[in-house]
Write a structure and sequence with these properties.
This protein has 196 residues and is an alpha/beta fold. The protein is built from 2 helices and 19 strands. A 7-stranded mixed sheet has the order 2-5-8-13-16-18-19. Strands 1-4-7-12-15 form a 5-stranded parallel sheet, with helices on one face. Strands 3-6-9-14-17 form a 5-stranded parallel sheet, with no helix packed on it.
């Protein structure tokens, strides 16, 4: 006896056919990607941990817009640097993945902590070919995405907002809030205390 709601692809006539997928990238883009993968493997990932200026210069050579005083770890993974913009004095921690199939903007004095995944791409599961769909991510000035967070496509994190560790962000977060959870939701205002 078959369980209702658990039909196989065969019984539904093969809903998904990944052989129909077509690459969204032309030859020029593919060559650019190969050049970046080579530079990333040989230069970026092998650089000293303190060589932030070198990594910023290398990213700029591949079209990224990198501000002054940016700290970016050598283990940061960046899919397409030409779609990344990082403002002055921002920090991107080790093992962060900037999956930049679409634009990723990180504002000034912002932080993205270790092992966070900023994902600008997915697939349209309503189509047989599972076509690639993308949307930009914006992390505004003075925001902090804490360790091991997921931030999905078409998400904006408001200015000064803190996203708590291991949160999953699928919708926009307002400014100057502490936001936590999966799915992430605003919890309380972020209060900044002046130094004593």
């Amino acid at each position: 006896m078959k369980n209702p709601g658990f039909e196989t692809q065969e019984s539904l006539g093969g809903m998904v056919d990944l052989s129909k997928r077509v690459s969204p990238y032309g030859l020029k883009e593919k060559l650019r990607m190969v050049a970046w993968w080579t530079a990333n493997a040989l230069l970026f990932r092998g650089s000293f941990h303190t060589a932030n200026g070198f990594r910023s210069t290398l990213l700029r050579a591949f079209g990224a817009k990198i501000g002054r005083g940016v700290v970016i770890g050598p283990t940061v993974r960046i899919t397409h640097p030409w779609r990344v913009e990082i403002g002055d004095h921002s920090q991107v921690g080790d093992h962060v993945w900037l999956y930049s199939l679409d634009k990723i903007v990180i504002g000034k004095n912002a932080m993205v902590s270790q092992k966070s995944f900023l994902c600008t791409g997915g697939h349209d599961y309503t189509r047989r070919d599972m076509r690639l769909v993308t949307g930009p991510i914006v992390i505004n000035d003075e925001a902090w995405v804490c360790a091991d967070c997921f931030v999905g496509p078409k998400v904006t994190i408001g200015r000064g907002t803190v996203v708590g560790a291991r949160s999953s962000v699928f919708s926009d977060m307002p400014s100057m809030m502490v936001c936590v959870g999966s799915p992430c939701k605003p919890l309380k205002p972020r209060v900044i205390h002046d130094e004593a």
